[in-house]
Amino acid sequence: MRSIVQAVLVVVILAAAIALAGWLLRSKPPPPRVTAPRLPPLVETLRVRNQEVRAEIVARGVLQPRERPLLTAQIAGIVAWISPQLQVGNTVAAGEELVRLDASDRELAVQRLRAELAEAEARCRVDDTVINRARLATVQAQLAQAELDLARTRLRAPAGGTISERSVELGQQVAPGTLLARLAAPQLELAVDFDEADIALLPPLPAPATVALDGEERSATLERLAPERDPRLRRVRGFLAIAGASDARWRPGAFATAQLRGRPLPPACAVPDHALTPEQRVWTVVDGRLTARPVSVVRRSAGQSWVGGLADGELLMVTRLEVATEGMTVRIASQP
Q: Mind giving me the DSSP string for 193-253?
């Protein structure tokens, strides 16, 4: 019996101790709440350094011949001979004979008129009258025309170049003006389309430039611009004459890139595009606070804008903040 009483007493004592501990924990005052100070945002800045800007204008285009001479018939006739060189892709020299028309009728006409000329000259020696002199002049003119027509039966390349198109066959009947072949001159030009914004930046023409193709560069000259812009693309076509002749790499149809220096622009500072607001403003830092400054965009290029309206030495914030307000306190991460 005594052991039962002792066990009950132990249980009561433990319960009382647990209750007392719980009361003490509940009645203990909470620790004071400590609020950490909120620091201003940390931002990166750059020191404004204005400098003269010359726009680098870059445009891509397609190489093409500077000239496209045409081989055309000047008289009517039947094609009697075609040079083996008159094939697309072959190179011909200026004056090289490419096509010959049947000349039998023309040769007979020349022979006949030469005989008539000899007869007319003999008559003038015997009887130098007005009628005989008129007859002599007429025969001389007819003979000159006949000899010219005979010479025109041999068609020669009007200039050196590469045959780009052939449209004549043996035995074909041709008339004056019939196109027989097209040539591509060895001198090349690059046709490019300039953005409307770049037109105002182009230097006076002719302007020096460089043209690059597969890592190789050649000097070039921007010679002329198209008189009208493309209303759909809002671009203007320009033509650059390229030094050197065409070859296996530099040939019509190849894509190339032109680069030239534009007109000098007002002094400006280069800033990242994200530092410029849609309202054409930037944030400067003065005594640890933000100040909005309106600027003028002089030139845009890959990832950055050249802006004017800032003084040398000003601190420009280049960190993109979700919220930025006038007079907002900031911390500068590094002093440029």
A: EEEHHHHTTPPSSSEEEEEEETTEEEEEEEEEE-SS-BTTTTEEEEEEEEEEE--SSS-TT
